[in-house]
Design a protein that fits this description.
homohexamer; about 140 residues; alpha+beta; Tetrahydropterin Synthase, Chain A; five-stranded mixed β-sheet; 4 helices; 5 strands
Chain lengths: ~140, ~140, ~140, ~140, ~140, ~140
């Protein structure tokens, strides 16, 4: 019996969307006010979904407390109250759009979830905009 | 890397469920209080999901601002503060159930989303009832 | 020990804002798209607040099940799936703005709440607009 | 045209996670504070999803009022304000984890949904933890 | 400049409403299904409100991190995953209605909030029922 | 008949809590990770409450569309996608704590709301932390 278990987490961060190989006019045209050189920020809401068989002994697909601790160690401690462009190495050469942040989160979590389980990441940048990455 | 981006929107409208080729008793039996001839209404919450590859240059699957503007032009301007039965041509001969409204929204949006992307529509009629149409 | 207990309820209705003693241009100017003669509608979310002393015997300010039943009988059964202008007598000569609906709800509930308790009504017309009336 | 319709419901219950064939230390190690022998509880939020073709006559995949009544009869009346371990027969020999509760709900609902329709169940144990079972 | 700062927290617990000095029929009549001798439970959502002057130096009424830690130590650690009737001493002779739980929380927090500040407690028993106690 | 009407709005911004007249150790001690020199950010949710008499002619305390436009012009256009410390003049010498932001918003809105009405501001810094300022 295959079930998906989901756990919510959150972090607050600053970011800016721009490419250093584009001039200001091009960055402004593509990224609009998200290109503000002084940054802006969001309360990111993260949902991590793990799909697998129910363990007959425990009734768990995965212990949610363990999943919570992995999310805290890998994502919240690395991203919370940070400037994603300046202080999170994964975004040194990668634009921190919601899409790219979701991919980075998926890649950081994947090694910590057993390989017989499917991993999916939902990331809310605002309550009105969100993205999903399934690997 | 395939990601789904989702954007929320909303509109308020009046509607009524009934078939002119059924008599009152039959309409009452099937549609109950949704058949009220004086109409009732809802705050519809709409989520539009677009799935595609991340553009390497922009980090976007699709510019959310562009998606927001398409939803406004095609759906909000056409449906908001309207009587769906009387004032929205698509429902002249189609019962405006949540299911049918979702299909109409999908069909109105599809030509405006590039054909290499998948489109999906979630429509909340109330916070307790919602429908999903994937085309 | 004075405590406020609050109970949520909801109803869906159609309405229209206009005055029959104003011409179309004046109604349009003041009420904009809320003046649509074919009506529009909302999912109204209602919160009823009752403030009073905790009954030492029961630990209740008021039995929430009783409050729920009063709201159903007086408000939900009267307003749900109705056209407020055409089918709810209180709005025969009163514009069904959120403000006026909240006052009408308060007046309909007041006789059913014991007089040593304070009554307050919160009414959400949309998740972004709401009103509060305290009598 | 295949559409998924979803209906929310809820119930409050007490439960405890433990195995009678494990000793206290083992139960404590695996289930932590969820193993409290005096029980704890949750407000469970349930979303039932039914996928099928839109009926051309009614515009419905399934009458939501009928779905609401099935959920009430099969799930809410059986689980609400109950102790899942002690008072719900399905959990006599099955640990009431969110995963197992979702499977039990799916199995209780399946015979009542016509066999040409797909059934899916989402169960929130808390606003931060939820599970999905698709059969 | 007087501002109210509010902090949300939550705990899950089991409880039962009954009086040992009433017989079963009387308990059933007053408390209905909340009287279930095997208990039921809730996800309680708590909001603690502190009102005071803004400290000119810090721009804070009160450090929210400090408030969060007080709520954790005094309330979450004491109530979470507990049976309120059996395992929380304050309810040994006090019925754990939402009203009484809010009063107990207020009394447990009051000594830890500086006396020049006003304290208020909002407690959600379910998303549809909540209570407020202002001392 | 006095009613309070409330309108929700939102803006995303970066900020940092620190005093230039304190050294790094003191800023770190008081403001913790909110002192990050590279900034972090939030999705601020704003609710503006206006209390006054219902206008007998319109049924409005205040036209919500007018209130929405005032909030957009005075607050959203000034704060959205901005760095509060660097780009919003009111915070040049004022720490942008939630408390101070709420006071600044109130002072910016007050001249635009007629003086016979009461103004109140609720500001969510995160879904778990919020402040209220009543002037």
């Amino acid at each position: 019996m295959t079930v998906t278990v989901s756990r919510k987490a959150h972090f607050n961060a600053a970011h800016r969307l721009f490419r250093s190989d584009w001039d200001d006019a091009k960055n402004e045209e593509v990224f609009g006010k998200c290109n503000n050189p002084f940054y802006h920020g969001h309360n990111y809401d993260l949902i991590v979904h793990v799909t697998g068989e129910i363990d007959k002994k425990t009734g768990y697909v995965m212990d949610m407390k363990v999943l919570k601790d992995i999310i805290k160690a890998e994502i919240e401690d690395a991203f919370d109250h940070k400037n994603l462009n300046e202080q999170v190495p994964e975004f040194k050469d990668l634009i921190p759009t919601a899409e790219n942040i979701a991919v980075v989160i998926w890649e950081k979590l994947r090694p910590h979830i057993s390989s017989d389980k499917k991993l999916e990441v939902t990331l809310y940048e605002t309550p009105r905009n969100y993205v999903v990455y399934k690997g």
